[in-house]
UniProtKB/TrEMBL annotation:
The keyword Cytoplasm does not apply. Residues 1-22 form the signal peptide. Pfam families: Glyco_hydro_28 (PF00295). The keyword Signal applies. GO terms for biological process: carbohydrate metabolic process; cell wall organization. PANTHER family: PTHR31736, PUTATIVE (AFU_ORTHOLOGUE AFUA_7G06410)-RELATED (PTHR31736:SF8). It comes from the Eukaryota. It is found in: Secreted. The lineage of its organism: Eukaryota, Fungi, Dikarya, Ascomycota, Pezizomycotina. This is Glycoside hydrolase family 28 protein. Keywords: Cell wall biogenesis/degradation, Glycoprotein, Glycosidase, Hydrolase, Secreted, Signal.
C-alpha cells in the first residue's frame, strides 16, 4: 500500500495530518489510491480497508483501472464525508466455502453479505466503468446442485448499504452478483443513479439475483438503472418509505416487487409512498407485483414464516412500457408460504393489508392476457386499486383484457372479469 499525497500551493500534508486539513476550504482532499496486488492469490481487502480508514473524514479513496481481488469480507463502517472513485473492478473470490462460513449478517430474513458499507455523506462514483463483480458464475452453477436453491444460508449479497445516509452512488456497474446484488437497510436520503446490473449467467442462468432490496429505509431514489437478472428487478421490503424508481429498464427478471412481507409472526411492518415512473420492461414476468405471507406461520425466515401484520399503501406507478411480458402485468398474491410446505395454509387469511395502489399509463406487448391478477386476503381485502390508461396487446394484436380478482374492494378504472386462482405462490400468480 502506497500513499499518494496531493501537493497544494501552501501545504504538503501527510497521512497523519491530511485528514484534519482535508475538510478545510481551499485544501484539496487527501487521496488514498488502493494498490492492486495483481493476483487473486493475494487478497486486496486489507489494502481496501486501510484506504478507507486513512481517507475517512474528507478524503478520496481511488480504485484505479485495475482489478482488485476481494478474498475476504469487507465491513466498512463509520464513513463520514468521503469520496470514492472506482475506475476498475472489484472481483470477489470463488471460494464458496469461505463465503458460506464468513459472510456477514444483513440484519433481516437471515440474509448475509460479502460487503457492508455504511456512513454519512458518502459519494461513490464509478464513472461508467467502475464495477463490482461477484464472480457469480461459480455461485449459479453451485446453487443448482443444492437442496435449497432459494435463500441458501450464507450465500452472500454482493453489497449491503447499512445505515447509509445523505449519500450518492453513481455510474457504477454490478456484474454477476453472488446472490442479491445489493441490500439497502437502515438507510436514508440517498440516491443511486446511472447503475447497470448484469447478472446474466455465462454458464447457467442465475437465480435469486435481485437487482436491489430495500428494508427499514426511507427517501431512497433509484434513477436510470438497467437491470438484467434472474429474480426481482428491484424489491421493496419491510418498512421502506418514500422510495422512488425512475427512468429505468428491466430485462428478464420478475419486475418491480413489493415484499415478500408479512413473514414474521405478529410483527407490524409497512411499505408506504412508492413512486415509480418512466420504466421499460423487456421480457420480465410482471411489471409490478406484490407478495405477502399468509396468517399461518410455517417455519422461519428466510424460507419459511408467515403471520405478519401491517399494510402497504400509497404505491403509484406511471408511464410503464412493456415488451413481451411473460405473466400478469400487475399481480398480487397474498399466499406466499413455507417453501417446504406448498400445499399447506390458507390463501385468504393474511392480516397484511394492501391499499391505495395505482398504475397510470402502461402500454406495450404481453404474452399473457392478464392485465391484473389480484389475489387478496378475505380478512383484509385490497382497497382503492386503480388501473388507468392501460393498453396492452397480445402478439396477434388483440387487447390483453383479463382482470382477475378476489377480495378487491373499490376497483377504480377497471372491472373484474373473473375469479383469480388461489394457491401458493412466490412469484405473484398460481
Ligand atoms: C494503478 O495504480 C498503481 C499504483 O499507483 C499503479 O502502479 C498502476 O500502474 C495503476 N494502474 C492503472 C491501470 O492505472
Ligand atoms: C483465481 O482465478 C482463477 C482464474 O480465473 C480461478 O480459476 C480461481 O477460482 C480464482 N481463485 C479465487 C480464490 O478466486
Ligand atoms: C467452512 O466450515 C466448515 C464447517 O465448519 C469447515 O469444514 C471448512 O473447512 C470451512 N471452510 C472454510 C474455507 O473456511
Ligand atoms: C461491522 O463493524 C461494526 C463496527 O466495528 C460492528 O459494529 C458491526 O457489528 C460489524 N458488522 C458485522 C456484520 O459484522
Ligand atoms: C441462518 O443463517 C445461519 C448462518 O448462515 C445458518 O446457520 C442458519 O441455519 C440459518 N437459519 C435458517 C432458518 O435458515
Ligand atoms: C431526500 O433525500 C435527498 C437527498 O437524496 C434530500 O435532498 C432531500 O432533502 C431528502 N428529503 C427529505 C424529505 O428528507
Ligand atoms: C444512464 O446510465 C447509463 C449507465 O448504465 C449511462 O451510460 C447513461 O449515460 C445514463 N443516462 C443518463 C441520461 O444519464
Ligand atoms: C450481460 O452479460 C451477458 C453475459 O456475459 C452478456 O452476454 C451481455 O452482453 C451483457 N449485457 C450488458 C448490457 O452488459
Ligand atoms: C416498522 O414500521 C412500523 C410503523 O410503520 C413500526 O411500528 C415498527 O416498529 C417498524 N419496525 C422496525 C423494526 O423498525
Ligand atoms: C415515458 O417513459 C419513456 C421511457 O420509458 C420516456 O421516453 C417518455 O418520455 C416518458 N413519457 C413521459 C410523458 O414522461
Ligand atoms: C434445506 O431445506 C430443508 C427443508 O426444505 C431443511 O430441512 C434443510 O435444513 C435446509 N438445508 C439448509 C442447508 O438450509
Ligand atoms: C381461509 O380463511 C378465510 C378467511 O379467514 C376463511 O373464511 C376460510 O374459511 C378459510 N378457509 C379454510 C379452508 O380454512
Amino acid at each position: 500500500m502506497r500513499y499518494y499525497f496531493t501537493i497544494l500551493p501552501f501545504a504538503i500534508f501527510s497521512a497523519t495530518n491530511g485528514a484534519s486539513l482535508a475538510g478545510k476550504p481551499g485544501n484539496k482532499a487527501k487521496v488514498c489510491t488502493v494498490e492492486a496486488s495483481g493476483t487473486n492469490l493475494t487478497d486486496d481487502a486489507p489494502a481496501i480497508r486501510s484506504a478507507f480508514s486513512r481517507c475517512n473524514h474528507g478524503g478520496n479513496v481511488v480504485f484505479n483501472a485495475s482489478t482488485y481481488y476481494v478474498n475476504s469480507v469487507l465491513n466498512i463502517t463509520g464513513l463520514e464525508n468521503i469520496k470514492i472513485d472506482i475506475q476498475g473492478k472489484l472481483l470477489w473470490s470463488t471460494d464458496i466455502q469461505y463465503w458460506l462460513n464468513h459472510s456477514l449478517p444483513v440484519g433481516y430474513q437471515n440474509q448475509s453479505t460479502a460487503f457492508v458499507l455504511s456512513g454519512n455523506n458518502v459519494r461513490i462514483n464509478g464513472h461508467g466503468t467502475g464495477n463490482l463483480d461477484g464472480n457469480g458464475d461459480y455461485w449459479y452453477q453451485w446453487i443448482k446442485k443444492q437442496p435449497n436453491t432459494s435463500n441458501y444460508p450464507g450465500r452472500p449479497h454482493q453489497i449491503t448499504f447499512n445505515g447509509l445516509t445523505n449519500s450518492v452512488i453513481k455510474g457504477l456497474s454490478f456484474f454477476r452478483s453472488q446472490m442479491w446484488t445489493m441490500s439497502i437497510i437502515n438507510s436514508h436520503n440517498s440516491i443511486l443513479e446511472d447503475i447497470l446490473v448484469n447478472n446474466t449467467g455465462n454458464v447457467v442462468s442465475s437465480s435469486n439475483t435481485d437487482g436491489a432490496n430495500t428494508m427499514f429505509s426511507s427517501n431512497i431514489t433509484m434513477k436510470n438503472w438497467t437491470v438484467y437478472n434472474g429474480d426481482d428487478s428491484i424489491a421493496i421490503k419491510a418498512n421502506s418509505t418514500n422510495i422512488s424508481i425512475l427512468d429505468s429498464k428491466f430485462y428478464n427478471g420478475l419486475g418491480i416487487a413489493i415484499g415478500s412481507i408479512g413473514q414474521y409472526f405478529g410483527r407490524f411492518e409497512t411499505i408506504q409512498h412508492l413512486r415509480v415512473e418512466n420504466i421499460q420492461y423487456v421480457n420480465t414476468l410482471h411489471a409490478f407485483y406484490m407478495k405477502t405471507w399468509t396468517a399461518d406461520q410455517n417455519g422461519y425466515p428466510p424460507n419459511g414464516g408467515g403471520g405478519g401484520i401491517g399494510f402497504a399503501e400509497d404505491l403509484y406507478l406511471k408511464n410503464l412500457t412493456v415488451l413481451g411480458l411473460r405473466g400478469a402485468a400487475f399481480a398480487i398474491s397474498q399466499c406466499t408460504r413455507f417453501s417446504g410446505a406448498p400445499g399447506v395454509g390458507n390463501c385468504t387469511n393474511s392480516q397484511f393489508q394492501i391499499r391505495d395502489v395505482g398504475i397510470d399509463g402502461m402500454e406495450g406487448t404481453s404474452t399473457s392476457s392478464r392485465v391484473a391478477s389480484l389475489q387478496c386476503s378475505a380478512e383484509k381485502p385490497c382497497t382503492d386499486i386503480t388501473l388507468e390508461n392501460v393498453d396492452l396487446k397480445l402478439s396477434n394484436g388483440s387487447a390483453a383484457d383479463s382482470y382477475l380478482c378476489g377480495n378487491v374492494v373499490d376497483a377504480k378504472g377497471w372491472d373484474c372479469t373473473g375469479k383469480v386462482c388461489e394457491g401458493g405462490s412466490a412469484t405473484g400468480e398460481c
